[in-house]
């Protein structure tokens, strides 16, 4: 009799071949039916404070808030970067920006040429495929500017629908879209005049189809929405709930981004549309009878861009300093909720310090395998299941970022946070009493500054395209 034994939270499946024979554990083969489905939903440029469970009062997010009410909220979860490209690379590879292949957006390289994921990179999709999962990405990939080895289908994904590159993902009525390795023309779509089929609805339709097709076996769906990234546009019917509320108008001027005229109502309606679509997907899981065997994660790739820090309306960054392109908390601390009925305790909250590079080892543990490559991440499965005593913790978290204000590096160690601009003194903050990073304590605590400066200097490998040198301005 052969026994395939997995971690306690999985179903135990026993195949009896010979009665009375001595049993033993098999490591090489995998029983896929015992593994949970994984859906990772990523918003684009959504701020920490843009969702109701983090204090938003103007934008309605009832379905995401229901995930929080029935799941676990992480209050100390960080993105991989304050911009989308490297943040997504970190998420996929389990390596922070000091080690991953993609450390900046396409044109912010030493040569000015985009850097993509390479064939040597091992993604979470590749890991899960060897554990028997069907893998799919729908939405913004953004890690194959050169349309070569960085393509999703070459990085472990069985199915892809969306944007390989950054610029096409800036428009919600694109003329063309990729489905696997083929480019399809979206008939009637006109990005300049915002006519045709809005991509948000098509992405949700494809996600629904992917789940319907693959729900009988374990699947991994990476649903990378482009809402609420600039440009700001959504169907007029979606804005109705936000009209006549007495909100001041914020006039948006169309350019590269073909914004709708009123920013406030459009931004809110975009987020609420995404929220409704997420609610529909959760309903689908319940109707298919797979909700209790599916982990759903919702978060954002980096801080918000829309809300004006000098005249905040939505308070999109909550109590934090900064937003997109900042290594202050507003640029990298993310809304994060995990939902898994009867596995994750409802209405739970954790202050466990975690980051995007933890997702790959987390997914591997859920699948009953170990990462095949060295990663910077730590699985947060123990936290999800309430086993806090078994949760391993990071010694520190590290980021680097280099656009027009850079290069900038940052480290968080316990409640201490350091931010270092090139050729400027280190900044030191105690997040336990100064979540807004208002009081620089570097001079008051020189030894602590020295300790964190060590990690800033010793947490990266050199990359020829991403040296920590000042770069000229560029536009994405």
TrEMBL record:
Family matches, as Pfam families: Sulfatase
CDD domains in UniProt: ARS_like
Keywords carried by this UniProt record: Calcium, Hydrolase, Metal-binding
Domain of life: Bacteria
Family matches, as InterPro entries: Alkaline_phosphatase_core_sf, Sulfatase, Sulfatase_CS, Sulfatase_N
Domain Sulfatase N-terminal: 36-369
GO MF entry, a single one: arylsulfatase activity
PANTHER family in the record: ARYLSULFATASE FAMILY MEMBER, ENDO-4-O-SULFATASE
Family: Belongs to the sulfatase family.
Name listed for the protein in its UniProt record: N-acetylgalactosamine-6-sulfatase
Lineage: Bacteria, Pseudomonadati, Bacteroidota, Flavobacteriia, Flavobacteriales
């Amino acid at each position: 009799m052969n026994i395939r034994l997995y971690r306690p939270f999985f179903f135990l499946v026993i195949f009896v071949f010979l009665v009375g024979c001595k049993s033993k554990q098999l490591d090489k083969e995998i029983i896929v039916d015992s593994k949970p489905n994984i859906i990772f939903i990523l918003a684009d440029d959504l701020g920490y404070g843009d969702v109701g469970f983090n204090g938003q009062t103007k934008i309605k997010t009832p379905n995401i808030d229901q995930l929080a009410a029935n799941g676990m909220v992480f209050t100390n979860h960080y993105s991989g970067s304050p911009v989308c490209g490297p943040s997504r690379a970190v998420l996929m590879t389990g390596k922070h920006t000091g080690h991953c292949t993609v450390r900046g957006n396409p044109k912010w390289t030493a040569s000015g040429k985009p850097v993509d994921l390479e064939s040597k990179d091992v993604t979470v999709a590749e890991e899960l495929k060897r554990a028997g999962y069907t893998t799919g990405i729908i939405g913004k990939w953004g890690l194959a500017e050169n349309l070569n080895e960085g393509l999703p289908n070459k990085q472990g994904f069985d199915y892809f629908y969306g944007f390989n590159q950054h610029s096409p993902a800036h428009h919600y009525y694109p003329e063309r879209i990729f489905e696997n390795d083929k480019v399809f023309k979206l008939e009637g779509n006109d990005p300049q005049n915002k006519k045709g089929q809005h991509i948000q609805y098509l992405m949700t339709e494809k996600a629904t189809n992917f789940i319907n097709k693959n729900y009988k076996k374990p699947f991994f769906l990476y649903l990378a929405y482009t809402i609420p990234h600039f440009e700001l546009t959504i169907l007029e019917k979606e804005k109705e709930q936000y009209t006549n509320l007495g909100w001041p108008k914020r006039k948006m001027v169309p350019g590269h981004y073909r914004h709708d005229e009123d920013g406030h109502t459009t931004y809110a309606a975009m987020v609420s549309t995404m929220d409704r679509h997420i609610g529909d997907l959760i309903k689908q899981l319940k109707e298919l009878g797979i909700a209790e065997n599916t982990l759903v994660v919702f978060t954002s790739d980096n801080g918000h861009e829309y809300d004006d820090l000098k005249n905040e309306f939505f308070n999109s960054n909550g109590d934090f300093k900064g937003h997109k392109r900042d290594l202050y908390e507003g640029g990298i601390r993310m809304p994060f909720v995990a939902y898994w009925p009867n596995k994750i305790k409802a209405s739970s909250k954790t202050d466990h310090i975690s980051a995007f590079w933890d997702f790959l080892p987390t997914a591997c543990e859920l699948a009953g395998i170990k990462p095949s490559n060295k990663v910077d991440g730590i699985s947060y499965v123990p936290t999800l299941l309430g086993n806090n005593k078994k949760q391993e913790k990071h010694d520190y978290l590290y980021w680097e970022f280099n656009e027009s204000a850079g290069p900038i590096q940052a480290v968080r160690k316990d409640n201490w946070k350091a931010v270092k601009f090139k050729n400027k003194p280190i900044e030191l903050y105690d997040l336990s009493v100064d979540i807004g990073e208002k009081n620089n304590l570097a001079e008051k605590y020189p030894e602590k500054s020295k300790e964190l400066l060590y990690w800033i200097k010793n947490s990266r490998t050199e990359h020829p395209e991403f040296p920590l040198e000042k770069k000229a301005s560029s536009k994405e």
